[in-house]
Amino acid sequence: MKVNNWHMKIVDSAMRLDSMETDGAVPSMLDEMDRFGIACAVVAPADAAVAVHNVAGNLQMVDLVTRYRGRLFGLAVANPWFGRDAVHAIEGAFARGLCGLFLHPRRQGFRLTESIVQPLLETCRRHRKPVYSSTGTPVCAEPFQLAELARQFPEIPFVMGHAGYSDFWYDVVPALKQASNLMLETSCQVAGVIDGAINVVGAERVLYGSGWPRSSPAVEIQKIERMNLGAAALRRVMRENAMKLWGIRP
Amino acid sequence: MNLIDAHTHLPGRSFGGKPRPIADLRREFANAGLCGAWIFTTDGLVMEAEKNNNILAEAVRGDRDFFEPFGTVNPHAGEDAAIRELERMRFELGMRGLKLHPWLQGFSLTHPSVKPILQRAGEMGLPVLFHDGTPPYSHPLQIAAVAEQVPSTMVILGHAGLDEAYEDAILACRRHPNLFLCLCGPSCGPLAEIVRRCPVDRLLFGSDGGFGSRVIETAIAKFHAAGLSQKTLQTIGCENPRRLVPKQPRRTDPPAQTHQHET
Ligand SMILES: [Zn+2]
Fold first, then answer.
1. How far is the CA of B78 from the centre of ligand 1 (A)?
2. Do A219 and B222 touch (CB under 8 A)?
3. ipTM of the modeled complex
4. d(Cα A63, Cα A151) in Å, to the nearest integer?
5. Which of A132, B175, B216, B239 has the highest local Cβ count within 10 Å?
């Protein structure tokens, strides 16, 4: 399969640990990155860390970021139901260098529009950290729900993870239009929706994601490649937007 | 590989689309790597089922060596009218299966017409492919609950639950021997898990080809990225769809059967 033959080092905004067993997941993640020319990736913790073992998950991420400096960057997690402890968890994680907050409403058991998430967002505002949320789950993680948060917190950049995949594709562009601080992450969603969003809101609001291990760079890079974006737009989507948003350098 | 796509659509005017000549569509599908496709109406799922069954049958009339058309009926038309249309599309139009889309067609699986429609489809040898993976009308276990009541009808979850409900689809497939999963939609992680946990002889390849651009090549890329063996691909992509919808001897003629022949 011929992917990424344009000699550009990709910055990937959507990889996740497969499990809390670091060594089980990281080598295959790094292999995938090598195979497809991904210079560095923003990585979110595994499900168990996202749902309950927040502190351990953040420590694991800090450890990885330290060991693979410039290669892996990490997102902090805290289940908003842990209240004040959740705020402390992400403050600690930000202090140790994690570059944003990862929300997963389906795993964490809350709707994006519920007030329990607000203290975490206020913390992100104080620390100037972007918020990535998985989207596409009915009732709890819909594009318009994330757009509502983006309107409430215009200072925070929000990332619409997996672009509302699957069947919220029709809400993606209208939601992006509601808030200029809302960005789109490309994994899982079909090419036509990503294409359409780039046409309407511009390539500067779109971030490449592999969605690994749910999806794969083999699928996701080819998907973007075949859109025939111009060179400048391709550079933005595959690399520059992410570096700027997360404040990272490979 | 001889890849048959068990989930494609004839582009229509709905969803901002526009009709395309069937020769174009066939060329696109073949170039993407298909040797055949089950094809459904798009417009008929949101309006005028009968008229759109006619349009679909007419469109593929000269290309029956490649396309296997699936018609649709609307359960809201009532049991009698829906079954009349089901028989018409089978015997007059030569449809090879029934496509239902509870979300777009706006019916619950508990609608009283649904079970008789499925029952009759089974009697006529038509597999029934459902859109699935989206609440509140199209979740895997809702469809499985009806499939359980019509054990001799082959029921296909057209999206294997999508990424949000693929685990439900796996459970449904393992429980009901008449329930198949079409792997159109799940990302490659879920896809690998479905193949690992389900009987491989009840899985199908699908892409939503004809609806959206470059979807077939993405679907094929997902299959490869999921690390499936060549043998598995052959079973899913070719043998299974051929078993459900066997090749007809002379594809240009609709079957000349009458009602007496098949009861
Ligand atoms: Zn479809």
1. 24
2. yes
3. 0.90
4. 34
5. A132
Q: What is the pLDDT of residues A57-78, one digit of tens each?
A: 999 999 999 999 999 999 999 9
The nearest CA of chain A is from the CA of B101 a distance in Å of: 13
Domain that holds residue A191: 2-246
- How many domains, in total, are found in chain A? 1
Domain B4-244 fold is: TIM Barrel (3.20.20)
Give the full edge-to-edge strand order of the sheet including A72-74.
Answer: A10-16, A38-44, A72-74
Subunit contact B225:A216, Cβ cutoff 8 A? yes
Tell me the nearest-neighbour CA distance from B226 into chain A, angstroms.
8
Say yes or no: B163 contacts chain A, CB-CB below 8 A: yes
Query: How far is ligand 1, taken at its centre, from the CA of residue B131, in Å?
Result: 6
Query: Residues A5-37: pLDDT tens digits?
Result: 565 799 999 999 998 886 768 999 999 999 999
d(CA B161, CA B143): 11
CA angle B131, B134, B138 (to 5 degrees): 55
The domain segmentation of chain B, as residue ranges, is 4-244
Instruction: Determine, for residues A192 and B222 on separate chains, whether the beta-carbon distance falls below 8 Å.
Output: no
The structure tokens listed for A224 are 């973007």
Whether A101 contacts A129, CB under 8 Å: yes
By C-alpha distance, the chain A residue nearest B218 is A219
